[in-house]
C-alpha cells in the first residue's frame, strides 16, 4: 500500500523536476573565441553560484585580474584584467560551490589577436 | 563522458572519505535496527556485538564528518589541502546545505550512542537512526524537485540498506551460536521485505534522477549507476543463495554449513564495500541526467 502510494506520488510529480545546481551558461569571451580585446571577463549561471577562486593563465604564467564580484553567490560573475591582454592564448579557471553544496569548477579558453 | 566532473587527488580523497562515511553511517544505523528488531531473538553476545558495532561506527562517522568538512573546504578553495583549515572556506561549507546535513547527521550519530543505555536508550538511538537518514536528504540532488518524494524515497532506501548492512556482522557471529539458524531464518524473512523496499526506493530515485532509460547509457551518472546495480545484483545473488540453501542447511545441521554461510556473508560484506565506493563516486563526480 505504502509502495503503491509512493509510486503514484513519484509518477504524479515527475515533470516538476528542477535543476538542483547551477551550470555556467555563457561566458565573455565565449569559450574558444578569438577576440582583439578583453575589457571584461564574465560568466553567467542559471542558479546562484559562489565563485571562490579564479585564475587567468597565459603560456607565460598567471595574469593578474581584479574581481568585480565578491564571494557571495551570484548569477553573474565579473572580473577585469589589470592590464591590456597581449596577443596569445588564455585560460580562465574557477572553483566554487553551488547552492546545493556541491563543489564546482570549470574553465574557458580564448585567444587574443592583434 | 557527459556529466563527469574533473577528478584530482582531492576528489579521490573526498570519494574515499565519503565511502567510509557511508559505511560508518549504515553500520551505526543498522546496528541499532538489528538490536531493536532482534532484541527478543538473538543471544546476548550477538546483541552486544550489534550495539558495540553501532557505537563504534557512530564515533567513526562523527570523525569522518569533520574530515569531510575539511576536504570540502579544500576543494572549493582552489588552494589545495591548505584550504582545509581556512576559516573562511570552512564558513562557506558550514553555510551550505552540507552544514545543515552535518547538524542532522552529527546529532543522529550522537543519539545512536544512547544504544548503550538500557531500555529508553534504544528509542533515542532509533530517533538518531532516522535523523541520520534524513541528513542525507538535506544535501545534493535530494534538494531538487519533487522534494517530498526524493526525501521519503532516500530515507526509506537508507533505512532498508542499513538494516541489511548492519546485520551482516552480527549474523556472521550468530551463525556460530545455537540459536543462530533461527535468527538467520527470521532475518531472511524480514530482509525479503527490506530488499523489496530497497529496490523499489532505489529504482524510483534512479528514475527521478535519470529521467529516461536512454540517459542511463550516455552519461557518467547512468554508467556508474549501472555498475552499482550490477554489484547489487551480485549481492542479491549471495543473499538468495544464503536464504534458500545455506540457512536451511544450517537449520538441518549439515556439517560445514556454518562455515559456508560465514564465508558467503563475508562475500556480501565485500560487495557492500564495492557498492559504497561506487555510490560515493556517483554522488561526488557525476551529475544526474535530469540536472544536465
Detailed description of the structure:
The complex is a heterodimer of chains A (114) and B (292). Chain A is mainly beta. In chain A, 11% of the residues lie in helices and 54% in strands. Chain A has 1 helix and 8 strands. In chain A, strands 1, 2, 3, 4, 5, 6, 7 and 8 form an 8-stranded mixed beta sheet that branches. Chain A is elongated. The N terminus of chain A is likely disordered. The mean pLDDT of chain B is 93. By secondary structure, chain B is mostly helical. The radius of gyration of chain B is 20 Å and the shape is globular. Chain B has 10 helices and no strands. The chains are: A mainly beta (114), B mainly alpha (292). The interface between A and B is medium-sized, with 27 and 40 residues.
Give the topology, please.
The complex is a heterodimer of chains A (114) and B (292).
Chain A: H1 2-13, E1 24-28, E2 33-35, E3 41-58, E4 61-63, E5 65-67, E6 74-81, E7 88-98, E8 103-112
Parallel strand pairs in A: 2-8
Antiparallel strand pairs in A: 1-3, 3-4, 3-6, 3-7, 5-6, 7-8
Chain B: H1 9-37, H2 44-77, H3 87-95, H4 97-112, H5 120-135, H6 147-174, H7 180-210, H8 213-218, H9 220-251, H10 257-285
